[in-house]
Structures are given as structure tokens and as C-alpha cells.
Amino acid sequence: MKKPPNSDKSVPYYPCEPIHSIAALEMALGIPERWLRRIASAANQSYRLAAEEIKKDGSKRQTFDAYPRLKYAQRRIKDRILSRVEYPDYLNGSLKGRSPRKNAEAHVGAKITIGEDIANFFPTISSTLVKAMWRGLFGFSEEVANLLTLLTVKDDGVPQGAVTSSYLANLVFWAREPQLYKQFRRRGYRYTRYVDDISVSCKRRITDSEKSEIISSVYAMLRSAGVQPKRQKHEVHTAGTRIVTTKLVHNVRVSLPKEMRRGIRASVFQLEARAAFGEHDKALHKELLTVSSRVGLLNSFHPSEGAQLKVRLKRLRKMIEDAAQGLQRTQEVGRHAVGISNSEPAPWD
């Protein structure tokens, strides 16, 4: 029997029937039960460290990549279960049609914006919390919830970088976040979350006691899930100053910060200078691709400024291509002069 449609759009909603047995999970994922159990039993050791970054505060951010069998199972979980959830509009991280821009747009015109960050978010989403989500939000049986938890956690936390992890991060506050959102909406506040970045804004000026109430309410929700705020990243922006959410300015409209725009323009100038000094190797070409992506981002927010830089990059790209073709012709002439066929490597190659 098909479940009724969700009448409360502020609550994450799974529109499919709950999975009550491993046999039903086998059918849902298209993976034999014996393989699911075997993959789950070795899941904790089935990751490699993909990257490690030292953050500004000195802490580490580790991202992981699952080995093929586990990754295959996680993709099935994502595609056939997690992607089917109807996510509330206030969640904007790593979901189709959502973005930092959409997150910031919700707060355009605010008189004040309060920003809170969650400390060490992914590793502190415990297996107990994940299992409670499979049981409570999805309505799956104990056995199914246990197996899905084994397949999606590592060392009693959610591994950042795994294909299921961003979805679990979006759903981690499923039991408390809708109530917080409704509470704020009744008071005239706007609430959004971009993964571990929480923003609350208001189009009117608010009192200090209201600010304290907002912060206390957010912290209470975090504590209910066993995670902690990153207090050094607590931010309050008010009208008359630059108001920023998810690193985007949104006083009147959403735009890139001036320092980011300057940095993009500088990166184009640096590429032009390197090419002018005769550098036309693969490293420069690779850097050109990176800078082109950044210019594309700038163009999406500031079209006139982006268009000018795109013209300069087009000219630079042609210069690099012409130089590469000229080098190739020179090498061919050299080969011909010393009697080397094109199939043989020249001594200078």
C-alpha cells in the first residue's frame, strides 16, 4: 500500500514502505543477502584515506574512499533509499538542486544573521544516531537498521567522503530540526543548514535576549544529537556591515566577497604572466583548467566581470595551444633532419 503524501514539508519524509526484513532489503538494493552480510562484516576496514587537510584551527579533516564492494553497496543505499527522501527546503547541502547560493538566498535582505558551525561534524555522528535514524525516520526493523548502520559508518562515526555520508548528515537532526525550524518561523526568523553550517536570520532588528534565545535553541538541538558547536566560528552579522552566509555576501543580493573576486582576477593575471615568460607546459594547462572553473563561478554571480575574464582566458588558451603546436612542428623538423621516424623517440624526448 502506498504511503500518503507528506503534509508537513518541514519534516524529512520517506515516501516508500518501510523495510522490515533482510530479504526485503535484498530486493530493494538488488544485492544478495549473503553479500550484504559479508560486506557489512568487513565494512569498518573497507576504506582508504583519500585526503587529509590541516584546517586553520590546527585540527584535521580526513576524507575517505570506500573500497569497491562497499562503495557499490553504498551507492545502492544512496540511489534506492536515501535519494528518495523528500528533504525540507531549509536543507541545502549536497542535495540535487541545492547549493551554497540557494542557502544564502534564503537570507537576502536580513537585518541580522547568526551563523553557527558544528565541530568535527561527520566523525561525531555516532552509529547510535545513525541507527536511530534508520529506525525512527525510515521505520525499518531492528535487523535492517543494524545492517545499514554497519554499511554506512566507520569507527563509530560517519566517514566524510563516502557516498552515503552527506545524506546521513542532512538527516541527523530529523527528530528535532523540524520543530526548531517551526519555532523560528513563528518568531519571524529564517533558518537554513548547509551540512555543518547553520544560519538564522531576521528582517527586523532583534534584541540581545532574542539573540541568546536563538543561539541556545540551536545549541540544544546539537546537544540532543551528541554533537558540539564550534564556538570559535560563531558569527553575528548585522545590516550596515557585510552579511555573509556560506561564504557568500547577501546584503541586497547574493554575491561573491570582494577578496574572492580579487583573488580570481589575480589568478588570471598570474597565468598570463607565466605564459608571457614562455611557460606553456602541462602544469600551466592544468592550472588554466582550475582558474577557468573559478572564473565560471565568478561569472555566475557577476556576469560582466566574468565575461571580461573569460575573453582573457580564451586568448590565453589559444596562446598555449599555438605554442604546443609550434613545439610539435619543431620536433618533427628535428626528427626529419636527423633521419628519425615518427615512431621512434628522439634523443631529446
Describe the structure.
- This protein has 349 residues and is of the alpha+beta class.
- It is built from twelve helices and eight strands.
- The chain has helices at 22-29, 33-41, 68-80, 100-105, 127-136, 142-152, 165-171, 177-186, 208-224, 258-276, 282-301, 303-338, and strands at residues 47-54, 60-66, 112-117, 189-194, 197-202, 235-238, 244-245, 248-249.
- Strands 4-5-3-6 form a four-stranded antiparallel sheet.
- The longest helix has 36 residues, at 303-338.
- The mean pLDDT is 91.
**Could you tell me how far the N terminus lies from the C terminus, measured between alpha carbons in angstroms?**
69 Å
Beta-strand share of residues:
5-15%
* Largest sheet: spatial strand order: 4-5-3-6
Main beta-sheet strand count, sense and barrel state:
4 strands, antiparallel
The radius of gyration computed from the alpha-carbon positions, rounded to a whole number of angstroms, is 26 Å
Helix residue percentage: 40-55%
**Structural class label:** alpha+beta
